[in-house]
Amino acid sequence: MEKQSRLLCSELCVQRRLYEVTLNCAILAWKDIQIAKKHTGRAIYGAVKAGSSCVPVCEIIAVQEKDDDTPCKNTGKWQKVPQSPADPCQHAFTVFYVERTRQHCWWCSNVTFHCSDHSLCLLWVQTIREQLALLNSERRVNYYHTFANRPKSLLVYINPYGGKQRGKQIYDHKVAPIFSRASISTDVIVTERANHARDHLKTEADLKKYDGVVCVGGDGMFSEIMHGLVSRTQQEAGVDENSMEETLMPCGLRIGIIPAGSTDCICYATVGSNDPVTSALHIIVGDSQAMDICSVHNEDRFLRYSVSLLGYGFYGDVLTDSERKRWMGPARYDISGVKTFLSHRYYEGTVSFLPAEGNLGSPRDKMQCRTGCSVCRQSSSDKLVSKNEDSVSDAECQDTWTVIRGKFLAINAASMSCACPRSPKGLSPSAHLADGTTDLILVRKCSRLDFLRHLLRHTNKDDQFDHSFVEVYRVKQFRFSPRYQECDSEVDLRESGVTGKRFLSQICREHRACGCMPSQSNWNCDGEILPHTAIQVRVHCQLIKLFARGIEEQQVFEDPYAHCAI
Ligand SMILES: Nc1ncnc2c1ncn2[C@@H]1O[C@H](COP(=O)(O)OP(=O)(O)OP(=O)(O)O)[C@@H](O)[C@H]1O
Question: GO terms for CC (predicted)?
Answer without folding.
Answer: membrane
